[in-house]
Amino acid sequence: MNLAQARHEIVDSLEQAGLRVQGWEIKQVVPPVVIVCPAVPHIETQVAGVSHGKPYMTNWLVQIIAGRGTADEVRKALEDMVTKAVMAIQPGMTGIEVNSPMFEKGDNPNLGAEITASIAINMKKED
To answer: What is 3-121's CATH topology?
Structure first.
């Protein structure tokens, strides 16, 4: 599996869970949405427990931005989105961590969360 296939597998899993996923390269964010992007560090080598068949550990960030509504509605929507996302990526990914909810300030405030997770790959395109 290469990087593009790993990203596609993550996006596919999230979409199958009923979440709307948007690419990180798209500037206009329209909540509710989940954005999958590379985490830092994006690729690690010589990670304990990573096999020789898949020697590269790739790290990903799943950003969740809940929609608009009352505080209670948005909180419930965020909790639902986080639950769906974790359940969707859990079978194929390791080291899943969910940050505490974040409130983005500004002209269009949003409630969101970030999930970090990793998947080992071999950098080779699979058919």
So the answer is: STM4215-like (3.30.2000)
